[in-house]
Specification:
Order of helices and strands: HHHHEEHHH
Shape: elongated
Largest sheet: 2 strands, antiparallel
Radius of gyration: 18 Å
Organism: Brumimicrobium glaciale
Number of strands: 2
Oligomer: single chain
Low-confidence stretches: none
Structural class: mainly alpha
Protein name: Phosphatase PAP2 family protein
Strand order of the largest sheet: 1-2
Number of domains: 1
Number of helices: 7
Keywords: Membrane, Transmembrane, Transmembrane helix
């Protein structure tokens, strides 16, 4: 059963990774860049500040940073170093079937050694779910926008050949869970008292 699931997962990954073009290579590398999204995060915080009182917005910021910090730390230093599952880019046979983004001539991006769970998926979903929980009562269309953003970031990681689908699913579930927990604590403590 496990071998069958591994085969399906590898087939999905190879299928995603093989649909390449110079433009898609550039686009997926850009989407996967953590720092390129800072203006987007800033816009989301501005929306929170515009839609809520200053105290609510400040407390949401504190809880949001705490949630992202915990999600990032546990994904990158907890799960990866506990499960020690090699990324597909470091898999001895699968790695030969994948294409990797060429950062410089003959220098290909393959990510760190371990991949479960995806830090990008974890962080994308903790951010998306925190802001969805906060903004959906005020901005109706925010949910599809944030879910699309989180999913396209996750897709980029498979396109680049550095994560299996289960790395992504695990990260998305973990990030969503942390976001729901932190937003629940925020609602029960801050929204009732501030």
């Amino acid at each position: 059963m496990i071998e069958w699931l591994k085969e399906i997962e590898q087939t999905i990954l190879i299928s995603i990774n093989s649909t390449h073009s110079p433009f898609l290579d550039w686009l997926m590398w850009w989407i996967s860049d953590k720092f390129i999204w800072f203006p987007f995060y800033l816009l989301l915080f501005v929306l929170v500040y515009l839609k809520y009182s200053l105290k609510h917005a400040l407390w949401f910021t504190v809880f949001g940073f705490a949630a992202v910090g915990l999600a990032d730390f546990t994904a990158n230093f907890g799960f990866k170093h506990t499960f020690m599952r090699y990324r597909p880019s470091h898999h001895l046979t699968l790695g030969e079937k994948l294409r990797f983004y060429e950062m410089k001539p003959s220098e290909f991006y393959k990510g760190g050694q371990y991949g479960f769970i995806s830090g990008h998926a974890t962080n994308s979903f903790v951010i998306a779910v925190m802001f969805i929980q906060q903004l959906k009562p005020k901005i109706k269309f925010i949910t599809p926008i944030l879910l699309f953003w989180a999913l396209i970031v996750c897709y980029s990681r498979m396109y680049l050949g550095v994560h299996y689908p289960t790395d992504i699913i695990g990260g998305a579930l973990w990030g969503s869970g942390i976001a729901l927990l932190f937003h629940w604590i925020y609602r029960k403590t801050i929204l009732k008292t501030v």
